Sequence to fold (976 residues):
Amino acid sequence: MPDTITLELFRYHPDRDERPRFQAYEVPFREDWVVLDALNYLKDRVDGSLTYRWSCRMGVCGSCGMMVNGYPKLTCAAFLRDYLPGPIRVEPLSGFPVERDMVVVLDDFMQKLSSVKPWIIRETAAETMASGEYRQTPAQLAAFKQYSMCINCMLCYAACPVYQHEEQFVGPAVLALAQRYNLDSRDQGNSQRYPVVWADDGIWDCTFVGECSAVCPKHVDPAGAIQQAKIQSTVGFMRSLLPFGNR
Amino acid sequence: MAKPFHRPHSNTWWLRRGPYRVFMLREWSATIFAVYTVLLLVLVSKVLDGPEAYDDYLGVLKSPLMIAFHAVALAAALLHTVTWFQAVPKAMPLRIGEEKVPPVLLMGGAYATLLGASVVVVALFLLD
Amino acid sequence: MAEALQHDIVIVGGGGAGLRAVIAAAEAYPGLDIAMVSKVYPMRSHTVSAEGGAAGVIKPNDTLDEHAFDTISGADWLADQDAVELFVREAPRELVQLEHWGCPWSREPDGSVAVRPFGGMKNERTWFAADKTGFHMLHALFQTSLQHTQVKRYDEWFATRLLVEDGRCQGVVAIELRTGQLRAILGKAVIMCTGGGGRIFPFTTNAAIKTGDGLGMAYLAGVPLKDLEFVQYHPTGLPGTGILITEAARGEGGILVNNKGQRYLADYNLGTPLDVGDQRHPQLRSMELGPRDRLSQAFMHEQEKGNVFEGPYGTYVHLDVRHLGENKIDSKIPFVRELAKNYAGIDPVHQPIPVRPVVHYMMGGISTNISAETVLPGLYAAGECACVSINGANRLGSNSLTELLVFGAIAGRNAAEWARSHPGLNRAALERQADVEQQRIAHDLINKHGGTERIATIRTELQLAMESGAGIYRTQSSLQATADKVAELKQRYANITLDDHSLSFNTELTSALELEFMLHIAEALTHSALQRKESRGSHQRTDFPQRDDQHYLRHSLAHHTDAAPRIDYADVAITSWPPGERVYGRAEEPARTPPAAHSGS
Fold:
């Protein structure tokens, strides 16, 4: 076991730097340290200006996604021991503008998130609480559960070559979330989501590279969700061609 | 005042990772099918032109270059078959109650269908 | 200083309570202009880490009375019973509301919501979404809130101070992280939903963001912090990281075992163990389903006896769920398996999980009444940062997620009412105050050169002092040593040094501001603990081992002064359940007297 390991960190300060640079730091190697621990070590003891987001350090808040040796990872789940002997190159998630160091701009993602109406839509006005919960069998729950596990960490966007090249692509996580609500037996709002989901910038921008699903730390499988939506969209289109095909 | 940095895109992004390379290979191999389709359409038109034209064209197809091309086209077709069948459980997942039908079964079903269809085609030839 | 931003209501914090308040206010008066200020994007808030579930009476075998009694006895009678009664009454409706908003609650075969047992409960009443309940609740709330377009979100804005003018709270000062600019965000009502401050301890389940900012802001604005000495240790955290292994693991039948292979809880008046194969296991309000304070205390005694395992990150015992089998583990507690595999390197299907008590929750907080109002007009608080109090001296597992819904909604509605009836804002005076705050931060931190103390050094020393003197067991001398240390650290904080003097996304600056809040609440906590000379719930004084209802059946209230905090006391509201013994693991009938037979002591 080595005593130390080298981290090459992407540094960019918007007020000072024209372009980013890489800065190498040596940190103690510990068997059970993750990349985030090493960053915290550096920030606490070596360079307080190092800038990154983190919070829960247990893989559920979605803050600490970065590129680790070119691969999108939650740094709270990227163990140093898996990158021996180093160096480990850490960069902000690709595909997003960089605010500072590892911090990327989320505005585009947040705006897209709202665009698919990720909430339960009912045809009738709100029911009273007195009638109790909507019934949903375990099978109906299982139909969408996987797509409800997204923590919005955006690793899938960083892995998606389409999003890297076409910023207007709604993208894997948001399309999977739309599918999550469309498949929920309690929801009646599919037709309100189709204009965004079935659009050219929606599912049809996806060329099925499949890396979004490969990098997803929560096994959401956005690629699968998008392919399913493509089938539904095609069926919908075919139906619209029939004289009595509209649902 | 803050100015976010937009990192440039490189044209060689797809060389970076294995899955990207496979993806690009799949996309580019589609051009092989375009060429193959043209060859097939020519074949059909030669059939309409009569037996002589057909035989001449068969001669052209037997050239080493053409055989090599068809070998490549077959490999590309197999690549597409494999990747397409891998997509089946993702695009058309099946559930029985709460349980997901294992992806392997769905893919196996796809291969079984392919095998069945191939047997039928081969049988038609052999019975001819 | 840029011009002040103005709204009707300002909600600080974007976790479960803040989002519930936002939706409640927006629904109450759709015309209201609502601002939500959060130092992280809402879906990053710590509600996301809650695992086990949310309590609410829904099954026919359960009653509101039993939920109230479990809560009050769990709280060692320090909960306000009027608040608890309101809480248990509102709980089912709030949980159904969340169901209507899409929360993927786990279900029974007939499609109704499923419930599971939790510690200290007489009946199963914990609603759950596998073991990611907080995550699902937070995302359902956040996504539901997105449809209210009158809400202006200030994501990644760090609030530094409450603005108080004419005796009323009228907004906050906040730093926009992206640009570093400081702005006054004015509102006719302000709701604090900023969570607890578990980060003042070294070993905690709490996320990095949980630095008690809201407690600090309210405290410095003259609002007392109630019952701050009560800190909950969750009995099952992973050694080293402090990652939470949910109580649901025990609710589903997991057992705690010491290094002798014994289910040691039997030795601590928590009942008699049943074989894990017995149909009646796990028994409610017994053994592993006892309350968290008692289980964490039992661990400490086992440690003294040498009945614990030794590891690189301290001692531990085993949480064994192997007998549940892979299927049940994967369907009911899959996150436990994921976390244990990733962070403890063991698979709970085949190996027991190493666990030890870990700081988890602050029962105390900004003192509010049952309307979520503080003593400062126009200021409301809800969620972990608030103390109503329903949690008293020890919170029951799965009451906190419900609490943030119930009191988040109440705060949202009441703040909306207040904002409508109190239109005027003293804009000029508020902007002047914001100017002063900007100068303070620029002078003390951003433009400061020449200090020698690193933030992390002071923070680490603070955490170690809290652990050693104000942990599970406390004495006068240990608490005094901690109080002295905190006072010293407050002095040293003035000599702080920053590497980062820039404006854009300066997280070293926010760490410094957080540390300041942490020092304040650590001081308030320690002094509250020093003056409570009894043992009750999570506050265990080895020098005063008995509960002392005569003197201390009262809420402590810590007030900020220029010197040490001033602690005074307020009565506990007793409606129907006179103080009694906490009985776990054996039969017991709650003594319930007719309402109004008892008044506050």
Chain C has three domains: 5-232+361-433, 235-357, 438-546. The two ends of chain C are 50 Å apart (CA to CA). DSSP finds 15 helices and 24 strands in chain C. Chain C touches chain A through 62 residues (CB under 8 Å).
